[in-house]
Design brief:
Structural class: alpha+beta
Number of strands: 15
Helix content: 25-40%
Oligomer: single chain
Largest sheet: 8 strands, mixed
Strand content: 25-35%
Number of helices: 8
Radius of gyration: 18 Å
Order of helices and strands: HEEHEEEHEEEEEEHEHEHHEEH
Length: 263
């Protein structure tokens, strides 16, 4: 296993490679493909090419490691060490020309994320969680970040990408939680989790996520002092329904409301 400094260096290198593919294509799109017959789940050349260069670099440097990616599938995914990639998390924002997207890359031991990076090359921002610490880099200047100490829902700021991701009773309990919070904002995809890690907001609640949507986020939030679980409070979620909170006190209160329909 690499030392934390080596992991950080390689994650930043992979983010650089991805940025070379995504940034020139941002707001310059010629073609957008749709993954769904019913609905709209876009994928672009930026998604595919960013993941390709990341995967090529990983396989070249670590031929015994595995790779799980959103666009190009799995490679040796049963390996002890596995890299999980979402080349453009927030592709809908990407195709709309809104800079609320990012490249997510995680290093996992089995299915447990050990380190993760979110890179937003348009705003020149990166969030890196490794060895229990999270650092934020903006235009070359780096500082350690931490979550808020907000302990009351009534004082908290909640984000989710869209309320449309909640259906049935999930929609009801989300609305119940949202009504208890001071402010609710929508959009941002992976960026919302990172601004939680930097102490700007307090809660992120989502549903229907895949492992590549959350793997890199977990070390970023936990390294900043936050908590990430599924809606049942289980740590290390593999996707599905996600609750991220600035601290354990706020997490417990939000979790209780999200499970209130079952009581």
């Amino acid at each position: 296993m690499m030392q934390p400094s080596q992991v950080a260096q390689f994650l930043n290198h992979l983010a650089d490679l991805a940025a070379n593919e995504t940034l020139p294509r941002f707001r310059q799109l010629d073609a957008i493909d749709n993954k769904l017959e019913n609905g709209f789940d876009p994928v672009t050349e930026a998604d595919r090419e960013a993941e390709r260069v990341i995967r090529d670099a990983i396989v070249k440097k670590f031929p015994d490691h595995g790779v799980i990616g959103e666009e190009h599938g799995e490679y040796q995914s049963e390996a002890e060490n596995c890299w999980v990639i979402d080349p453009v998390d927030g592709t809908k924002a990407f195709v709309a020309g809104i800079p609320m997207w990012g490249t997510l890359i995680a290093l996992c031991n089995g299915m447990k994320p050990l380190a993760g990076i979110m890179s937003q090359p348009f705003t020149e921002e990166r969030f890196l969680g490794v060895d229990g610490t999270t650092v934020y880099t903006h235009k070359g200047k780096t500082r350690q970040v931490s979550t808020t100490v907000t302990s009351e829902l009534s004082n908290s700021i909640l984000m989710t990408t869209t309320p449309d991701m909640f259906a049935g009773s999930d929609s009801t309990v989300f609305r119940k939680l949202a009504d208890r919070c001071r402010l609710v904002r929508y959009g941002a995809d992976c960026y919302a989790y990172c601004i939680l890690a930097s102490g700007q907001i307090d809660l992120v609640v989502e549903a229907g996520l895949n492992f590549y949507d959350i793997a890199a986020i977990i070390p970023i939030i936990e390294g900043a002092g936050g908590v990430v679980t599924d809606w049942n409070g289980n740590p290390n979620p593999q996707g599905g329904k996600i609750l991220a909170a600035a601290n354990s006190v706020l997490h417990e209160k939000a979790l209780e409301l999200l499970n209130s329909s079952n009581k």
